[in-house]
From TrEMBL:
Function as written in the Swiss-Prot or TrEMBL entry: Key component of the proton channel; it plays a direct role in the translocation of protons across the membrane.
Protein name (record): ATP synthase subunit a
Signal peptide boundaries: 1-26
GO CC entries: plasma membrane; proton-transporting ATP synthase complex
Single annotated GO MF: proton-transporting ATP synthase activity, rotational mechanism
Source organism: Salibacter halophilus
Length: 358
């Protein structure tokens, strides 16, 4: 009960922080009608810094407090590096040499000869863009997650070396059941006797996805980055599974694709085409499943918070907070569940590629 109360208090704090974050975003557009869609998309999208809050100085001017991140742009064979605070939240351009950069909705463009942006009929910028290699929120979160993994498993390894009887202590006592779970319930049943070769990969994606999911539920620094809800992130992980699966595929795996046993010769070309397309649809399903489920959870929670500002009534707060806390608790389950599903399906695809003919 004591741990449950502590968890509930933490969730209340997180939810109230999300409310403050949305209120700060809404205050930027004071005098305009509150648009929950724009606010939600702003919070789930990647950016070049953490926006914390706004304040008004003695002269009545509004200022934003944020944590900037390094901007690294490659253009005309050279690198331009500066902090994102130089853009002043997109209000001012940045000139480096003979090139002027403009930030528009978290994207960076090269200014035209007049020092501005050109737009199409749908008000989308048509200016050229440099190659953006910046340390954005998502990149920073991935680096932080990698450091956490090294700290966690490095500490667990040291505890085993110090243990006299080989029993886990400290971090190892928490991580060992999870590692055993991935080994006995994911790798062994789906891959078989060759599971040892793929355990490092399966453990890495399981813990990497799980940690990023959990930190993404925290709406304030250093959390709040929607890493696993970024299609580029899930695409990269799916490509890794695709490569591991097909590089390790044996002759029986490839024969089943291009010469499926027991299929009539007249149907064989159609089956070969279907099986070949299946090589690519499997990782595609991995990519979309993780992206859609994590993004949907963030959108629902932010939508519940936005109800307070849509109705502009304090009486809607109990409903928003109640359902919001429920969704936060549910998202804790989803964070682990999506890591488990991605790892499980990866193991199934790998197992089907390395399975010997019976």
């Amino acid at each position: 009960m004591q741990y449950f109360k502590g968890l509930l208090k933490s969730l209340v704090l997180i939810f109230l922080s999300a409310t403050v974050a949305i209120q700060a975003q809404a205050s930027q557009d004071e005098g305009k009608e509150f648009n929950p869609g724009d606010v939600i998309m702003h919070h789930i999208a990647d950016s070049h810094g953490w926006h914390l809050w706004d304040y008004t100085d003695e002269n009545g001017e509004k200022h934003a407090v944020s944590i900037p991140l390094p901007v690294i742009l490659f253009h005309n064979g050279g690198l331009d590096m500066f902090m994102s605070s130089a853009f002043h939240h997109g209000e001012e351009p940045v000139t480096k040499g003979d090139v002027t950069y403009i930030m528009h909705h978290s994207d960076i463009y090269i200014a035209n000869e007049a020092g501005g942006l050109d737009f199409d009929e749908e008000h989308h910028p048509t200016n050229a863009q440099p190659l953006d290699l910046s340390i954005t929120k998502n990149v920073f979160m991935m680096l932080l997650s990698g450091v956490l993994l090294l700290v966690l498993f490095g500490g667990a390894a040291r505890s085993y070396r110090k243990s006299t009887n080989g029993s886990p202590r400290g971090l190892a006592s928490f991580l060992e059941p999870l590692v055993v779970f991935v080994r006995d319930d994911i790798a062994k049943p789906n891959i078989g006797d060759k599971y040892h070769r793929f355990m490092p990969y399966l453990l890495t994606i399981f813990f990497f996805i799980w940690i990023n999911n959990l930190i993404g539920l925290i709406p304030f620094f250093p959390g709040g980055a929607n890493v696993t809800g970024n299609i580029a992130f899930t695409l990269t992980l799916s490509v890794f599974t695709f490569i591991v699966t097909n590089v390790n595929g044996n002759k029986h795996y490839w024969r089943h694709i291009f010469a499926t046993p027991g299929v009539p010769i007249a149907v064989l070309p159609i089956m070969a085409l279907v099986e070949f397309i299946g090589i690519f649809t499997k990782p595609f399903a991995l990519m979309v499943r993780l992206f859609a489920n994590i993004t949907a959870g963030h959108i629902i929670i932010l939508s519940l918070v936005s109800l307070i500002f849509v109705f502009e009534s304090v009486f809607i707060s109990p409903i928003s907070i109640g359902f919001g806390l429920f969704m936060n608790v549910l998202e804790l389950l989803v964070a682990a569940l999506q890591a488990y599903i991605f790892t499980l399906l990866s193991a199934m695809f790998i197992g089907g590629a390395v399975e010997e003919h019976h």
